[in-house]
Design goal:
This protein is α+β, with helices and mostly antiparallel strands. The protein has 4 helices and 15 strands. A 6-stranded mixed β-barrel has the order 4-8-5-7-6-9. Strands 11-13-14-12-15 form a 5-stranded antiparallel β-sheet. A 3-stranded mixed β-sheet has the order 1-2-3, with no helix packed on it. About 15% of the residues have low confidence.
Length: 279
Amino acid sequence: MGGPKVINIDPKPESSGNATDGIDPNIPLETTITPKVEPIVKGTTKPYIVNGETVTPMSDLSTPYTQTGHASWYGKKFHGRKTASGEPYDMFKLSAAHRTLPIPSYVRVTNLSNGKTIMARVNDRGPFGRDRIIDLSYAAAKQLDITRHGSAQVQVTLIDPAQPSESPTTTAQPIANTPALSQETVQVTRTITAAKPLSTLDANGVYVQVGAFGQEENADRLQQRIFSALPDTQSLLNKVYNGKVFQIVLGPYPDHALAAQVASQMRDQFQLPALIFSR
């Protein structure tokens, strides 16, 4: 009826230095969400045209799905306006806009510059600028430390609420924190099946971090999952505690190229936000 919806105007992200002016810092922000199975909103899977390009949204929750690119955020300018889901946009909740993901759906977003990660509920369409892959709410962007700079390089992973997950639903846990890992107090367990004395990470080498958890049992579950599927990783599979979170780290590897292969395998086989760091 009338053809696909046509969008020619790109809502500007709030990227200037005073984008947060006028936002009451005392209003509490949503800090955690639990993904749940929800029906896709009728009409949000229809193709639409943005800046001359036809975009076809996903019609179902198809995982694994991982995307890397730039994220921006939108706040008070759009607060209260209707989203593609029909719900009013609430900048103080953990939500996001995406061009093709199902509405609603849940994603894990990792800021690749600082390793912080959150979960957000996709309930809107956008961003329509070609250089960005996701627009985050103010609450999500603030916890990822994106509000100051306006945008950041991120990794977006689609979550299937029907599948068991080892990932915590708390937000802003550091996924990769190289300075913390360099502290002498960092300790690592080298095996899963037998307890061995704790040791520090090797002084030299390249590592791949695949998870960070506030709860140790969540880290244990991920460690066991990887070990069960890939027993040969046992000598390289480490559980690291940096005083704040439990991190699952693979390594050390002799060079970045080999670590990159492992990171790619972790993303493809386990849909994990694998991040590489060196010591």
